[in-house]
Amino acid sequence: MSLAQDARLPAWPGGAIAGPDGEDGAATGGVRLSGVRKSFGSLDIIHGIDLSIPEGAFTVFVGPSGCGKSTLLRMIAGLEEVSDGLIAIKGRDVTDLDPSDRGIAMVFQSYALYPHMSVRDNLAFGLKMANTPKAEIERRVAAASAILKTDHLLDRRPGQLSGGQRQRVAIGRAIVRKPDVFLFDEPLSNLDAELRVSMRIEIARLHRELGNTMIYVTHDQTEAMTLADMIVVLREGRIEQVGSPREIYENPANSFVAGFIGSPRMNLLKAKRVGPESLKLADATLAAPFQTASGDREEDITFGIRPEHLTVGQEIVDGRSLTATIDFSEYLGGTQYLYCQLADRQTVTVEYRSPGAVKPGDRIVLSWSPDAIRLFDAAGLRIRQDM
Amino acid sequence: MTMTPTALSPTMTAAGHAIEVRPNPANEAAKLARARRKRNGAVAYHTAGVAIVLFFLAPFAIAFLASFRSGAEGMTPPLPPWPTTGFSLDSYRSLDTFGAGVWQHTLNSLIVSLATVVLTVAISLLAGYGFSRYRFPLKNTLFVLIIATLMIPFQSILTPLFIILAKLGLNNSLFGLVLVYVTLQLPFSVFMMRNAFDAVPKEIEEAARIDGARDLKLLVRVLLPLVLPGAATVAIFAFLNAWNEFLAALVLLSSNDNYTMPVLMMAVRAGRLGAINWGAVQAGVVVMTIPCLIIFLLLQRYYMRGLMAGAVK
């Protein structure tokens, strides 16, 4: 695709993705935030974010509503002033620049198309504002609408388009600007479920074709997991964890990330450590999956295990199983979710794949392999095996 | 709209078989009654509509017809209000003998009204945008203060206005009159435009800012088309109020040449030595009505939308 090559500006010196010089090399090419804060009056929304986004990465900001992910994105876009800290795009400090001078383009949740202009004018508007020559505008509009297959819509008004078409046009408007960084603010939230899936695939394809840095805000973890090269989990204006989807899912840094990513969510059960290698959960004493140095004293911990890592059986394995009673079950065809209660009334969700029927009230034995367990301390931080 | 008679059409059962439903006498009677009720309803609806239309059109028709009565007829009270001795333009000719001629006064009125419209729209557009989008200290207090001036009867500030204009050397000038009209028109207009801007989603403006539209360019290229209904409403109100305003024009204008149409009409209506030229009065009414009709018909499409803005949302 010719646009893919055009869209990339000449490589910034040292702008290689995660070059040999490590973090700094990665940061110069993409987006770097250092100590970014935002407060409205005395209310702090963003509490100092440090983040390096490598060039070309698809980064997803995810978090519950009100966590500041949209605000952070709008600060990168320049729509929201930065109370403190620095934002750099491609090694250039853009903290106080106008949105149009930052080399960014943004796609809004509500599309935000100009309702009084045709699709063609919507796409061309930014270029016209930048005094781009007419022929160049036409070329770029044609290229963008070819990528998004909106050629036949060019003369319509946004009001005459469906939701999906509008979103394509909104994305097209971002493409024609040839930005260094694409910003997406929950772009699929207004679409219905089916369209959301197809647009998601389309955005992934777009990223592959254009290869630009993209930052995508969503509260939908499916979108986060499927699209991202890098996920940034935010809570209350702080970064909880940064990593690839696999890292985030398999190696959550704390109980918040563990509970937030994954559907149905990870079972986080209250337990007590009673020895260096054992813990007490409900009525059972379990083997801790690894030794920890601080394991001598008794303390409250959280025992985390994902529903798909629990196996349903009848046999009690000493130290690696729990008995539970089924409350109710959801039948989803290929799999069933069993909502169970432990002896101390804590609830556990289990993914049950075998075709055998179970009914509420049944007593079952749940067991697991030791490496499926994630333990968190009283503050919610992950307890890792320390040497 | 004609409906397919359901009683005669085959009805599909759940299983998909078509079964013929035989006409049922009781059903038929009910259907006839329903059709009759519907027809009666339609007749009443349209009769009422026509009556209301006549009611509203009558003053226009009366003035229009009466303005074509011949000279002698024009001197008598307009009963009946249509020409009985043939059409003539005598009334328009005699209207032209008042003041500095009807063209001069129409021109005065047009200058004053259009200038009022332009200034009012320009100022309220900027003020409405500012009140809608910017955060600044005392914003709401200022806004309430502007709206509150609607409560001050204009007549009560006529004397101070006159003195101020005299001090500024603007008495007996059309420009001074325009300034007064704009001032009077602004509270409502600013209120209207703020609502119009409030109804425009913020994201559109933000998208435009990312696209590189700034300040005036942003306002004119992106936002103005979106608040056009509000602006049209403001323009209509400004035009009509300035066009019809009488008291300020009478008090503030002192030379014959500067009079606007309402002041001229006063002179026409007062007559000469007690003899009222009814034909000239009616001709004046027609002349005064035409620009209002033109403006309204031009802008009514936006005007309705402007009044509805923010009503549903």
3D architecture notes:
The complex is a heterodimer of chains A (387) and B (313). The model of chain A is unreliable at 1-27 (pLDDT under 50). In chain A, α4 (119-129) packs parallel to α6 and α5 packs across α6 (163-176). Chain A has helices at 2-7, 23-29, 69-77, 119-129, 134-148, 163-176, 193-210, 221-227, 245-250, 255-260; strands spanning 31-40, 43-53, 58-62, 84-89, 92-93, 104-107, 181-185, 213-218, 230-235, 238-243, 267-275, 278-281, 284-287, 299-305, 311-313, 321-331, 336-342, 347-352, 363-367, 374-376. Chain A folds into two domains: 2-103 and 179-257, P-loop containing nucleotide triphosphate hydrolases (Rossmann fold); 264-376, OB fold (Dihydrolipoamide Acetyltransferase, E2P). With 387 residues, chain A is α+β, with helices and mostly antiparallel strands. Chain B is mainly alpha-helical and 313 residues long. Chain B has two domains: 22-90; 91-308, MetI-like (MetI-like fold, Orthogonal Bundle). Chain B is built from twelve helices and two strands. In chain B, a hairpin with a 5-residue loop joins β1 and β2 (18-19). In chain B, 30% of the residues are buried. Classes of the chains: A alpha+beta (387), B mainly alpha (313).
